[in-house]
Design the sequence.
């Protein structure tokens, strides 16, 4: 297990705003000078890499007030058919660049992917399997809203190829659910998990959020008791970032309803203790998994990876994102589609694609990305591996960065020796702070306010 030492003084000292490092550089650095020629060049650069597909489904029936995702609230099911018409055009155009690639992973995110009915979900899966070379053993996962699915839909999802599910529960407390406009049926959630296990889904994940209005330590422990009883293979416990100036829905959450920072820290501490005592390993940041789960096994082997979907086992795969706002990672290139649905439709109709912006990474970006990824996924870094890959002398190249780490070394967050860096149990919760010392972009202080707080 990834051991954690809870040091409240250090946590309070380092609890500043910072990136979550689902990418480096972050999406804030994307620019509109990136074009489709850049995308095509990136797609051709590593022709033997496997491919991971991400499809964004933006539709939701109801607005969750905490949500920071790209979503469209509608009750009109026919809008999905229109969306799939345009998505098919993009799939056909993009798949031509990856004819010889093997797809090892597919993920549907949102929004609410289970907004799609049986015919619509089968249509989309058929598109993907028709135009891409999907391996028989591919990981195929979907995000579920337990309010927007029936039990027999799980059977259908399993039948068309899904073998992993992720369920957004957030909190079981009825008062909290009402305040964030996400009231759920607890009994039905248990029935869903029972059916998922009967159907043989390879992995189940549950998402929770701490820091929501009216949450207390006791109320969140009540939620955790229920979740442990559900017995998912992995769990994500996210810190709610209250940024109403960026996400309009959050205006409905009043500041005075939010738990105090000290309460949030108490919730996090007891969550870590509770999950550890319940057999879950701390993977990193906000992820927990059972020891026999693929994430825990990959971390033990030093093969864990992180991208815009969070932690993943797909270390060597490029990521192709399709749909409104979707992001792609192709080797040393990032690309993002238009975020507005109307603009997405216009661009796909005209060009077959909806590319809006992106970034070509420099060699320095690539080096720093690998350093940050190594630290955030494995809590350690071997200088020799970086030196061999990039023909640099680590201590010379990162002299300024290593100097920035010295106060953190003195505080016991990590150890630095002649061969590399090892993050201590005291530093694992503060891994983002450690990574920020290697982040050239985050040194521009003003941009840090675009991010959530570390804890």
Sequence:
């Amino acid at each position: 297990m990834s051991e954690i030492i809870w040091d409240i003084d250090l946590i309070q000292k380092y609890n500043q705003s910072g990136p979550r490092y689902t990418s480096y550089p972050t999406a804030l650095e994307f620019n509109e000078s990136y074009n489709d020629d850049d995308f095509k060049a990136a797609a051709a650069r590593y022709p033997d890499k496997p491919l991971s597909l991400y499809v964004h489904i933006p539709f939701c029936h109801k607005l969750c007030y905490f949500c920071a995702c790209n979503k469209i609230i509608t009750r009109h099911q026919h809008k999905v058919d229109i969306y799939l018409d345009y998505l098919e055009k993009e799939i056909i155009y993009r798949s031509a660049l990856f004819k010889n690639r093997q797809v090892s992973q597919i993920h549907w995110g949102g929004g609410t992917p289970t907004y799609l009915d049986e015919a619509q979900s089968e249509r989309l899966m058929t598109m993907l399997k028709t135009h891409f070379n999907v391996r028989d053993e591919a990981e195929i996962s979907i995000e579920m809203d337990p309010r927007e699915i029936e039990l027999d839909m799980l059977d259908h999802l399993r039948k068309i190829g899904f073998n992993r599910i992720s369920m957004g529960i957030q909190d079981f407390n009825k008062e909290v659910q009402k305040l964030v406009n996400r009231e759920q049926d607890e009994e039905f959630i248990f029935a869903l998990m029972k059916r998922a296990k009967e159907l043989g889904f390879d992995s189940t994940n549950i998402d929770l959020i701490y820091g929501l209005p009216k949450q207390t330590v006791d109320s969140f422990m009540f939620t955790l008791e229920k979740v442990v009883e559900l017995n998912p293979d992995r769990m994500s416990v996210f810190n709610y970032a209250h940024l109403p100036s960026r996400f309009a829905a959050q205006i409905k959450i009043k500041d005075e309803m939010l738990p105090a920072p000290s309460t949030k820290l108490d919730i996090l501490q007891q969550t870590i203790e509770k999950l550890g005592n319940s057999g879950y390993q701390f993977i990193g940041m906000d992820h927990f998994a059972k020891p026999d789960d693929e994430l825990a096994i990959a971390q033990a082997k030093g093969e864990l990876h992180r991208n815009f979907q969070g932690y993943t086992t797909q270390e060597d795969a490029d990521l192709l994102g399709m749909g409104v706002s979707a992001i792609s990672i192709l080797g040393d290139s990032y690309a993002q589609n238009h975020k507005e649905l109307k603009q997405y439709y216009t661009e796909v109709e005209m060009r077959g694609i909806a590319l809006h912006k992106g970034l070509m990474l420099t060699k320095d970006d690539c080096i720093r990305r690998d350093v940050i990824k190594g630290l955030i996924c494995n809590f350690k870094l071997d200088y020799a591996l970086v030196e061999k890959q990039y023909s640099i002398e680590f201590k010379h190249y990162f002299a300024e960065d290593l100097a920035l780490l010295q106060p953190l070394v003195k505080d016991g967050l990590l150890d630095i020796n002649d061969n590399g860096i090892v993050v201590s149990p005291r530093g694992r919760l503060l891994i983002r702070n450690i990574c920020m010392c290697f982040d050239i972009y985050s040194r521009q202080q003003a941009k840090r306010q675009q991010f959530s707080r570390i804890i």
Observations:
- The mean pLDDT is 95.
- DSSP finds 16 helices and 19 strands in the chain.
- The domain at 362-455 is CATH 1.10.10.920 (Arc Repressor Mutant, subunit A).
- The first helix runs from residue 8 to 13.
